[in-house]
């Protein structure tokens, strides 16, 4: 009897253990991340800076805030922008933080890595290439790089930061000085810095405007617009997407996603994204502002004309507000 009793307890233990493992696996399979979308409601003063978590709105108390960027790390929610006084500000869990002391401009980029907060879009008065790490300015000697023919003209800017392991990638641009018909002019060119080392994308980036950076391992992807052409670079190699405009870039595994807009004959253009260069249509009379990927799910934030803030999940639209707009999207972790 003792032997049979021991066998029964053993089988019961195995059954419970297997059931727990099965439940855990099922939970992983059905895991859905929290989706955070930033924007504002109403176009009249006072506006309501708002973020939506899975469609549920939270309105910030600061009616002077013009939101620009959002990042999420665990329970902490960071929102960056500027106020009507021209002061760059960011919020951590709805607590206001002002950036002063020679820093000016609006916060267009927020990146969180561990406990470190990286801020871009703010420059100092000397037009040095600067980003903030935990509110402390980090200046880059941006004239040191990989181009022997490069001549610094004294202007550079940073628009985004991406982190991969211990490496910091700063996206921005420089003015490369060239001579044409005996006239010296400054040509804006997209560039990025890996741990303060300059990498110029070359002639293909002249007069182009960067819109996003994504790093996967040692691979660097940069989206941009050049004279009405949507494009991106993969490790310095330019890839043309076609007529239109990009708004952001995201890499998931071996797939490259770029959100954007095209002029297809509709009155206000159409919202689209490209997956590995293939165009995916979302809606007419619409625009996008960001794209993120989780598993097989594609989330795109944007706006429908005339004043609807929305997002698309796998092409299905969800309206967030009927008078306002959205500007950025992030996933919780």
Structure description:
It is a single chain. By secondary structure, the chain is mainly beta. The chain has one domain (34-331): Methylamine Dehydrogenase, Chain H. Helices cover 8% and strands 62% of the residues. The chain has one helix spanning 2-29; strands spanning 35-41, 48-53, 56-59, 65-73, 76-83, 88-92, 95-98, 103-104, 109-113, 116-120, 123-124, 129-133, 136-140, 152-164, 167-180, 183-194, 197-200, 209-216, 219-226, 229-234, 237-243, 245-252, 255-262, 270-275, 278-284, 286-294, 297-304, 308-313, 316-321, 324-331. Strand 5 and strand 6 form a beta hairpin. The N and C termini lie far apart (51 Å).
- CATH class term: Mainly Beta
Low-confidence stretches: 1-30, 145-152
CATH topology: Methylamine Dehydrogenase, Chain H
* Rg value: 23 Å
CATH architecture: 7 Propeller
Percent range of helical residues: under 10%
User: What is the average per-residue confidence, as pLDDT, rounded to a whole number?
Assistant: 81
Beta-strand segment tally: 30
Count of helical stretches: 1
Strand residue percentage: over 45%
